[in-house]
Amino acid sequence: MVRTQIQARGIQDEGVLEVMSRIPRHRFVSGASTYEAYGDFPLAIGRGQTISQPYMVALMSEEMRLKGTERVLEIGTGSGYQTAILAELAAEVYTVELIPELVEGARRLLDELGYTNISYRCADGSVGWPEHSPYDRILVAAAAAKVPPPLTSQLADNGILVIPVGDSRHYQTLLIVRREGSRFDTRESIGCRFVPLVRRD
């Protein structure tokens, strides 16, 4: 998976490559065959949600530019696969998921796998988790129509926000937002397709 789907497409971050070669992706997609779990496509995980294809997980992780000291906010815990990668690459991870069954399932699995630097919240991810802000990095694993202002306000100076944005359910653009004081510089990465970021209201 790492060699043919990730390295071959230009992902170079050694930390991301090492972690993704080690984390058992099949544990996060119950009911899928081994081929499906490591295949080059997203997979359904229930409740209308998906686990992203390995390349997209790798790309978003690389764009975070993690050095191991960061406090990270993840919006959209899902199955917990991306959460595990962030927990390996950063100091602290705060993950928010709207669907109770998903966050509890992810918590059980990640606890079983031995992660101790993850905090969980079942809530509307579009408002972030202000109590623990500011965050050095924020990763959003669902598509918003526009970048939610609460997330940019919770981003630390020199922090990075990675988020898919777009109104279409079939095509969005992955945005990389870097904060410099009161200014936010935005760069477009690649086209992508994510499930919508669902608000509680």
Give descriptors for this structure.
9 strands, Rossmann fold, 201 residues, alpha/beta, 7-stranded mixed β-sheet, two-stranded antiparallel ribbon, single chain
Descriptive account of the structure:
This protein has 201 residues and is of the alpha/beta class. It has a single domain (2-192), classed as Rossmann fold, CATH 3.40.50. 27% of the residues lie in helices and 29% in strands. It has 7 helices and 9 strands. The chain has helices at residues 2-6, 14-22, 34-37, 54-63, 81-89, 100-112, 149-153, and strands at residues 43-46, 49-51, 71-75, 92-97, 118-122, 135-140, 155-165, 172-180, 183-192. The chain has a 7-stranded mixed beta sheet with strand order 5-4-3-6-7-8-9. It has a two-stranded antiparallel sheet with strand order 1-2. Strand 4, helix 6 (100-112) and strand 5 (118-122) form a beta-alpha-beta unit. The longest helix has 13 residues, at 100-112. It is globular. The mean pLDDT is 95.
Number of strands: 9
What is the element string, with H for helices and E for strands?
Answer: HHHEEHEHEHEEHEEE
- Order of the strands making up the biggest sheet: 5-4-3-6-7-8-9
CATH topology (fold) name: Rossmann fold
Mean of the pLDDT scores? 95
What is the overall shape? globular
The CATH class name reads Alpha Beta
Taking all Cα atoms into account, the compactness measure Rg is: 15 Å
Low-confidence stretches: none
Q: Distance between the terminal alpha carbons, to the nearest Å?
A: 38 Å
Structural domain tally? 1
Q: How many DSSP H or I helices? A: 7
| The CATH architecture | 3-Layer(aba) Sandwich
Class by helix and strand content? Answer: alpha/beta
